[in-house]
């Protein structure tokens, strides 16, 4: 028996996610079920109708089609290695012959930004959240972050997370900014990474049409995305990269949407399924599998 709960992080304006609480103690299936607040058994609030919740419940309780995909794609161990997998991908496509600068757009608290400092002489992390950038700069200064992790109810446990001591944190800088309105003096980079942030941009299509200008010739763009497009995010449909139906009835899904926009300026080098686990509390986590795509500027 699976129970569905829905949560929304109002503080960071991150994506609302369906929580499938099952025999494993509680997982969030982050493969596209994006919801507003709701109750058990599908009685929801917000933009989702009762019928939409019932469709999700039907697929949760009776659907067989995606089980094979999940079995092949997801394991807890693989999900815990998400940032290592991202770093491996960046390492694989690091081009020593071009500028040693990297840009992490939607950097949050800077984990990947710091990791990139093992590969590049200069790394800039940018995020719209003032709070996240303040914390990232504090981590840069102190090399660690103290935080509370939810155990159950009102019970929390104190932790200290530390940056890899091999990383030269002086190579890293963090700024508050909008991906669609970046500072004019940023210059060009040898690599740009965007990790599950594209759907939060005010105009993802516009950004992708112009991102090549931020990369030197031969520069690498890495996009890891779950393709989360929904009206609840406040993004007009004409700005969606994929997940829509053309007038002729053609469905535009995932990477096809990226190809439609990027192919003029980029060559697609690789696609890769990358599992992830986000731990919300002791017995609840988010399991996701995003699609990593690697593009080389022509």
Automatic annotation (TrEMBL):
<dbReference type="InterPro" id="IPR029063">
    <property type="entry name" value="SAM-dependent_MTases_sf"/>
</dbReference>
<feature type="transmembrane region" description="Helical">
    <location>
        <begin position="15"/>
        <end position="36"/>
    </location>
</feature>
<keyword id="KW-1133">Transmembrane helix</keyword>
<protein>
    <recommendedName>
        <fullName>Methyltransferase type 11 domain-containing protein</fullName>
    </recommendedName>
</protein>
<keyword id="KW-0812">Transmembrane</keyword>
<dbReference type="GO" id="GO:0008757">
    <property type="term" value="F:S-adenosylmethionine-dependent methyltransferase activity"/>
</dbReference>
<feature type="domain" description="Methyltransferase type 11">
    <location>
        <begin position="103"/>
        <end position="223"/>
    </location>
</feature>
<keyword id="KW-0472">Membrane</keyword>
<dbReference type="InterPro" id="IPR013216">
    <property type="entry name" value="Methyltransf_11"/>
</dbReference>
<dbReference type="Pfam" id="PF08241">
    <property type="entry name" value="Methyltransf_11"/>
</dbReference>
<dbReference type="InterPro" id="IPR027625">
    <property type="entry name" value="OvoA_Cterm"/>
</dbReference>
